[in-house]
Input
Amino acid sequence: MLAHKLLGVIFDLDDTLVSSALNFDEIRKSLGCTAGVDLLDFVAALPIEQQIDANEQLLTYEINDAMNAKKMPGTEQLLALLSDLGIPCAIVTRNCRQAAAIKVSNNNIDIALVLTREDHKAKPAPDALLHIAKLWQIAPKNLLYVGDYLYDLQAAANAKTMSSLVTNGKTSHYAHLADIVVDDLIELSDKIQAEFICDSVHGASELLGH
Output
C-alpha cells in the first residue's frame, strides 16, 4: 500500500510509457564518455565547441529512437484509470524536448504537461517534480513518480514523493528503494485500483461507524 493518499502521478517516458532502444554504451563510446559517467554531466562539462557537437550527436540518437518508440503494455489502461479517478498526470524525462514531443505525439499519449532536460535540471535532481507539485498545489508526498531506472527513484526520494519502479520483467538491485515495484503498467493499474477500492471501503466503514 502507498504511504500517503495518491493525488497525482508523474511518469518517466522511456521504457515506462514508451519503448526505447537507445544504446548508451554506444553513445558513450561515440562521444568519448567513460563508462559509468552520466552522459548529460559529461556533455555539460565539455568545452563549448565540443559541447555543441556532442549535443547534436545526442539529438540525432534521440530523434532516431523517438521515431521507432512504441507504447508500453498497460499505458492506455493506466492513463484511462487515472482519468476516471480524476488524478492529474505529467511526464518528466531526461529526453530532449523534440524527442519527447515525437514520442508522445506518435503514440497518442494524452498527457499535456511534459518536462524535459531543457526545462529543469535533469533527474536525479528533484527540480521538475517539485515544479509540478507547486503547479498542481499538491504536497510532494501525495505524488507518485513512476519510472524504470535508478535516477527515477532517486529523483522521487530527493523530491520526497512516492515512487514506483517498473522492472519490465528484469531483476533490479535498487528495487528496494521504491514504494511500489511492478513488472509493468498493467500491474500498477491493478495496485492503484485496489488502493482506491480500499480507501473507499475504509471511508464507508468510518461513516457507518459514526
Observations:
- The chain has two domains: 8-17+72-209, 24-68.
- Residues 185-209 form the longest helix (25 residues).
- Residues 24-68 form a domain with the 434 Repressor (Amino-terminal Domain) fold (CATH 1.10.260).
